[in-house]
Amino acid sequence: MKKYWKIGLVAVPLASFVLFAISHEPPSPFIEMEVKGVKVDSIGQSPVVFLADKEEKKVLPIWIGLLEANAIDKELKNITSPRPMTHDLLHSILTQAQVKVKEIKIVDLKDHTYYATLYLKLTKGVIEVDARPSDAIILALKSKVPIFVSAKIVDEQAILLPPKSAFGERYGMRIQELTPSLASHFHFKGKKGVLVAEVLPGSVSETSGIKAGDVLTQVNSKEMEGVQDFEEIFDSLEAGDKVKIFLFREGKFQEIDLFLRP
Question: Which of 98, 196, 232, 237 has its CA 20 to 30 A from that of 83?
């Protein structure tokens, strides 16, 4: 009996230590993301690939080349080319050489350029190969392997998505949070504002001159610090109101009057 009693005394603190260690496990330096699609941004006419986390709480836009965007779009839609394209050839070579793509990681951002690493599994082990994110993403889709992004990059550059119920536009404007990456892309050096992602055709926002790519800094003299500010002020307005919008577009600030039709 004493023997079991002593074992119990040892087991209790040991279990407590294990639970403490699990609860204080450091967060992963990488977050698994999924490709949600590609789109051409309306201002720079450059293709963008969108990566979202598993919970679809954040999305990371990465500007890429047209050929790579077409290749990613084909993979997402399961469209095959009649003859092998460059990425098809590379994937075929790796397969024939019995080299497997284990995973890819987007590891760094320097001077507005993202850096990725391919992890290739050989018979002797795993090797790391430097790659452009677009090329790495295409190979990940072809090989059906995970895509990981540095947690630091996600924290600093990803766009925080609002709840699905909040995706509705306000008077034809669909807006999103302005990340440092997006601000840099649109040459906006201010600290407060929200980005117009889309303007619905025929809406009062379109007829008033609002355009996709505009950075709204003030609405009726209220500074726009985020999506919530934008939604709150527009939800307080009524049909027939005139709204003064201060915005940044193509390197210049300007003021636009938005008339809310009854």
Answer: 98
- 124 and 222 both lie in a single domain: no
Is the pTM higher than 0.90? The answer reads: no
3-state secondary structure of 192: coil
Residues 122 and 177 in one domain: no
What is the residue range of 108's domain? 30-157
Beta carbons within 8 Å of 29's beta carbon, 6+ residues apart? 150, 151, 152
Residue that is last in its domain, among 106, 128, 157: 157
Query: In the prediction, which pLDDT does 20 show?
Result: 42
Q: Report the alpha-carbon distance of residue 184 to residue 127 in Å, rounded.
A: 34
Task: Phi first, then psi: give them for residue 42, nearest 5 degrees.
Answer: -70, -20
Alpha helices, H only, 97-247: 133-143, 151-157, 180-185, 204-207, 227-235
User: Strand 242-249 to strand 215-219: parallel, antiparallel, or no bridges (unpaired)?
Assistant: antiparallel
207 plus 138 within the same structural domain: no
> What is the tens place of the pLDDT at every residue in 180-208?
878 888 889 888 899 998 888 888 899 99
